Amino acid sequence: MSVAEQAKRFYESRLRVELEAKHRDRFVAIEPISESFFLGNEFIDAAMAAKNAYPDRKSFVIRVGHEAAFHIGGFAS
Q1: Does the chain have fewer CB atoms within 10 Å around its N or its C terminus?
Q2: DSSP symbols for 5-47
Q3: Share of the chain above pLDDT 90, in %
Q4: Residue 36 and residue 74: Cα distance in Å, rounded?
Q5: In 36-53, which positions are buried (b, 16+ CB within 10 angstroms) versus exposed (e)?
Q6: For position 77, what pLDDT does the model report?
Q7: pLDDT tens-digit profile of 52-76?
Q8: For residue 45, is pLDDT > 60?
Q9: Distance between CA 76 and CA 53 in Å, rounded?
Q10: Spatial separation of the C-alpha atoms in residues 41 and 36, rounded to whole Å
Q11: Would you state the pLDDT for residue 68?
Q12: Quick one: which of 17, 21, 29, 18 has its CA closest to 58?
């Protein structure tokens, strides 16, 4: 299972309810092996916190309360 899949499962099973109630629109970086997570107001803040804590491991960043961390493109009618 990929890092992204592991992180998404952890988010869904253990973090979603609490984070979406208290930290909507922030970013959370999840390091799935340790099940550690790091919140940030900006993507880079969460990502760097995870990198600093676990420099040799990959983490995955999710935007709390959203389907994707970033939305690319515009609205077409």
Answers
A1: C
A2: HHHHHHIIIIIHHHHHHH-TTSEEEEETTTTEEEEESSHHHHH
A3: 83
A4: 34
A5: bbbebeeeeebbebbbee
A6: 54
A7: 999 999 999 999 998 878 767 766 5
A8: yes
A9: 41
A10: 17
A11: 76
A12: 29
